[in-house]
Amino acid sequence: MEDKSMLISRHAWLFMKYQNRNFAKQFTYIFVLLGLSVGILPISGCGKHADSDTRAAVAAGKLLAEKGHGTIPACIACHGNNGEGLDAAGYPRLAGLNATYIEKQLNDLARELPPAGVVIESVAKDYSKTPRIYSDLTVFSPGLRHDDVMSPIAKQLSKTDIHNIAAYYSSLPFQAKPVAADYEVLERGQDLALRGKPEYGLPACISCHAPNGEGFGTDFPPLAGQPAAYIVNQINKWQRGDRDNDNLGLMHAVADQLTDADKLNVAAYYANRSLIVNGK
Amino acid sequence: MHKYLLGAGALFGIAFGTWVAADANTDNTDDLPTLDSIQTRASMQQPKLTLPNELTVVPVIKPGEYFVPPKLEDLTESKYADEVRLGRNIFVHTQEYAKRYVGNGLNCSSCHLQEGRKPHAAPLWGAYPMYPMYRDKSRQVITFQERLQDCFRFSLNGMAPTLDSREIEALTVYAQWLSTGVPMGTIMAGRGFARIDKTEDPSPFNGAIIYKNYCASCHGDDMYGKKFTDRDGYMFPPLAGPDSYNKGAGMHKVKTCASFVKANMPLGKPFTLNDDQALEVCVHMFMQDRPWDPRKGMFMSIFMPVTEG
Question: Tell me, what's the ipTM?
Answer without folding.
Answer: 0.76
